[in-house]
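#random but structural
TW: two for the price of one
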Amino acid sequence: MLENLSESRAVQKTEITETFDVTVSGGGMVGMTLGLALAKAGLDVAVIDAQSPDLTTAPTFDGRVSALAYSSCRLFEQLGVWHRLAPNAQPINDILVSDGRVRRGAAPFFLHFDHREIGNAPLGHLVENRHIRSALFAEAASEARLTFVAPGRVLRATPDAQRTTLTVDTDCAMAATLCVAAEGRVSTLRDQAGLKTIGWRYAQTGIVATVAHERPHDGIAQEYFLPSGPFAMLPMTGNRSSLVWTERAAAAPAFLALDDASFDHEVARRFGGFLGVTKVTGPRWSYPLSLHLARSYIAPRLALVGDTAADERIELEALLSDEIVGIAKPGLLRKTKGKVKPETLSAHTLLVRESRSSTQQVADRALRAAGVEPARVWELDSSEAIKRAAREGLGIAFVSLYAVAEEVERGELECFRLAGHPRIERRFHIARLVRRSPSPSERGFMATVTRCAKGAHHAAASVG
């Protein structure tokens, strides 16, 4: 039952207490999917969302698409939603992953995920978020056990021994055995329940738009890693793709402010011409990128869905310690017991990676603390390029000891540390579910890391 309270003011002004088995605060894709599943399982459910369905299904509301894995498609089939989605679902037949730079183009090597390796079914489907919402709302309207209140905002949930009572800004109160918060990153009920979160912002912005192109995409999803972040073209129905462009937060506003022709030019520079002429159609959206984790999913009479949890079910295991060391052509620097005075480095060229490299960020902080001001700085596009330049005596660099272990062992490079300053170290951890046995791929990864660590140990011994 779909109850659009924006068109029913009399209902909004009446104080009525209704009782449900479950109430869901948040009627987006996660909340409405859960509401439908519970209703079809025989429970009386109310789903409350702060925004009108007319708004959230409009083409201008949200330009993003979602990749639906096989299990998600089966879930929608069971809920009676898939037949509404299928006409707007684009199969993903292949995924290509590459990297490169804007001016130089893509590297010659790439990863290829081919659906034929797992059978005849596609790897998944891409569907515009607005179509997923429309299909869910249409199915909800035909489900007698589901009441959809929109627009309506849950102001508070008050639990007791038997139930929880919800106060809604539509001047009504609801009671339920369980309340579920599917409110996303900004959750009123989660905050009221005292469920803590952790997170941080990345210095990146996601730019999203729909791109029309001359040639068919053949169901191929492209992921192109650039120094500023991933640049993805995801296949949509017809000769269209969804652009997901990750850009530095400081630079993103300038790209968003470009006129249509200039913006199309920047897209073409990054993506190339294999789809023919490309043109952005419709609005451009931008989304600041951040990580947001709830520490727990549950409180009395309350459960969270949709927010990723970092709770007691996830453990962090120390994986390895890495050291950032200086490297130079053998004999270039005067060392004492593997250490070099920081002031002697200022006469040399410093070879660096792009500023977003995590290794470079760690090294930069240490060099600033040591007062190192190099005469020149050369930015190179890969660790291999830096090692080659250092071997030729073109400058010095600070890199991961793991990255140069073989070259140091062969005598092609020398490592050094900064005299009078602590080692430049960082630690890596692996996150896994408690009591979960490692998969074969995880065991293989751990074995590779162990081999690398042994090589770095030998290299460290040469530094002293």
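TW: number two ↓
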Amino acid sequence: MAVIIKEKKPKTILMNTVLVIEEGLTDREIISCCLQRVGYYVISAATSQEALEKLDINLPKVIFIDAILYSKNSFDICHKLKNNLSNKQIPIVLCSRKNSAIDKMRDMILGADAYITKPLNQVEIIQTAQRLIEAYDHRTRN
């Protein structure tokens, strides 16, 4: 009897790729469209499970996560990503309707690299992605 070993494809880091994990279609489209307009390749996911499956194939340079995911706690996803060797360097942006200093500080402690409040500001989305991708490129080059 022959044993078939299924080989996993190596993960690919795509140039200027962003993963958007957002259950709300409107917010997912806002983030995706404004980043695509300035030249980013966007991979989107409506659930945490879908996002984790996409991360098995491609490694983005930044991840935007809705702070209120009903399918799984966004803080659990942050923790899981930051504790995985292949994902730990990828910056995470949490998007939330909560905008108190305490909420922002808690989210940064839990692993977020940036925090954007809703309603979403397209200029802030683009500037945050650019800043984090530049920092990611600098860190991974050295």
